[in-house]
Design goal:
Elements (H helix, E strand, L loop, with lengths): L4 H14 L7 H12 L5 H13 L6 H25 L3 E2 L2 E2 L1 H4 L2 H19 L4 H28 L7 H27 L3 H28 L2 H4 L5 H4 L5 H9 L2 H12 L5 H14 L2 H21 L5 H15 L4
Antiparallel strand pairs: 1-2
Helix pairs in contact: 1-3, 2-6, 3-4, 3-8, 3-16, 4-6, 4-8, 7-8, 8-9, 9-15, 12-15, 13-14
Length: about 325
């Protein structure tokens, strides 16, 4: 029997709220409970459970649910540390941990979250533990590599399309791939099915990041949840800016260079000017084509799984809903 996503999300939130991360000193553990209480889609643990559900009819036991929580705890650990690096004041509309407490507290609390994530993964049955830990270690290292590349690219003038796509695969997509592979491992799926689910997760993960890049420029402000044009204002090297810099000539190149070099400006003027360049170069269409290409590759990997289309329906529908957000 396949259970609805809402059932799994409720169970994930309940178990996260109940989990004993530690009590004293409170300055160490309160930030963990705080960042996990800020919500979020719980995308990664949901993918673990949806992947498990592809191959099994039983409701996931703690040997599946607790490792799924580990992925969410690890994800939030990376967010806590990323916020320090980015000097971000807000996370999901609330003060970040390093703002509410201080950076040293955020570093230590994040470290404990990583330790607890490993502790949660120890719930994996012994016959699968080595496989899971090896896959998780590779994934975790790649996430850190992706973050470092992202920071490196802030201080270089040009980043190629290939470099950017490789960076977002590591920083964002590999954890989605691991989440799906983890669910498949725990369900006893074949190595081929594990790899195809990992491929599905990585391809849609890159597609989702390209969607985020596109939405930052073209989303409806009333529905987006953050400032439209924020990436333009901060000169963030998104896929759109990279393609524009690659293709701009003449007046368009001059306009981009002028706005990228200005330190004092009105936000709305800069956003309009850069969007005008994007329009002339068909950057929106190119970004959507690249994004949809990754989604298509992902679904091709899902199509090859050795389970019926009926069993794939929940994961497919969940992914398609995410693809439709405010587009």
């Amino acid at each position: 029997m396949q259970l609805p996503v809402s059932h799994y999300r409720q169970k994930i939130n309940q178990r996260l709220a109940e989990y004993n991360f530690g009590e004293s000193p409170s300055e160490l553990y309160d930030p963990i409970r705080y960042i996990l209480s800020l919500g979020g889609k719980r995308l990664r643990p949901l993918l673990v459970l949806l992947a498990y559900q592809l191959f099994r009819d039983d409701e996931p036991s703690d040997e599946v649910l607790v490792p799924a929580l580990a992925v969410e705890v690890f994800h939030n650990f990376t967010l806590m540390h990323d916020d320090i690096m980015d000097q971000a004041p807000l996370r999901r509309g609330k003060p970040t941990v390093h703002t509410k407490w201080n950076p040293n507290v955020a570093i230590l609390s994040g470290d404990v979250m990583l330790v607890r994530a490993y502790e949660m993964l120890l719930q994996v049955p012994s016959q699968s533990l080595a496989t899971v830990m090896q896959a998780f270690n590779q994934c975790a290292a790649e996430v850190c590599e992706g973050q470092q590349w992202d920071m490196n690219y802030e201080s270089v003038e040009r980043v190629s399309e290939a470099e950017y796509l490789a960076m977002i695969r590591q920083k964002t997509a590999v954890l989605l791939g691991f989440s799906l592979r983890l669910g498949a491992i725990l369900a006893g799926a074949s190595e081929k099915d594990q790899q195809q689910l990992n491929e599905f997760g990585e391809k849609i993960g890159v597609g989702f990041q390209l969607m985020d890049d596109w939405l930052d420029v073209y989303a409806d402000q009333s529905k987006f949840g953050k400032q439209v044009g924020g990436d333009i204002i901060s000169n963030k090297k998104t896929f759109l800016l990279i393609k524009a810099l690659e293709q701009a000539r003449g007046d368009e190149a001059t306009t981009l260079a002028d706005w990228l070099g200005q330190e004092i400006f009105k936000n709305e003027h800069k956003v309009k000017a850069v969007k005008d360049v994007y329009h002339k170069l068909n950057i929106s269409e190119q970004t959507q084509a690249k994004m949809n290409g990754y989604f298509s590759q992902g679904f091709k990997a899902l199509d090859t799984l050795s389970v019926s289309e009926e069993r794939k329906s929940a994961l497919r529908q969940f992914t398609e809903q995410l693809m439709k957000r405010e587009r």
